Amino acid sequence: MYRRTASAVFLGLLSLLVLRLWILEPTVVESTSMAPTITAGSVIWLDKVSPGVAGIRSGDLVTFRNPDDGAMMVKRVVAVAGQEVSMQDGVLQIDGTAVSEPFVDQRTIDGMYFGLVRVGEGELFVLGDNREESIDSRRFGPIRTDAVEARIMGIR
Question: Which helix (H) or strand (E) holds 155?
Fold first, then answer.
């Protein structure tokens, strides 16, 4: 009887470990670069199974390592391979068309310009929602799709 209980507990703990390490992981966000969507102290749930290239679309929230220092970053994908990105007076433009972004405080980025950047094959252009404070593809360029470690599945 004791052996059966110990086996069940062991399998349960092993399942939780596998789930947390390779499938779904909760993480606390320390940065304000995604505010107001994700605020500092929020818990995000990382889907580590399906960050694959084929499934990533504009609007997805993803994690990857900062190309400069290796720190984990959370950003929004705004453009995928073949698209052109620019910002004109604080308004994001994809392929020359203004994008509606109700989560971005336009007052803080009025007068901001960058681009035109063409996103290459196997790349993603990522931005933080808090554009005034975010370090993102405007600084380090597009990221490789294979650099994506997880997709955000939930925010609490």
Answer: strand 150-155
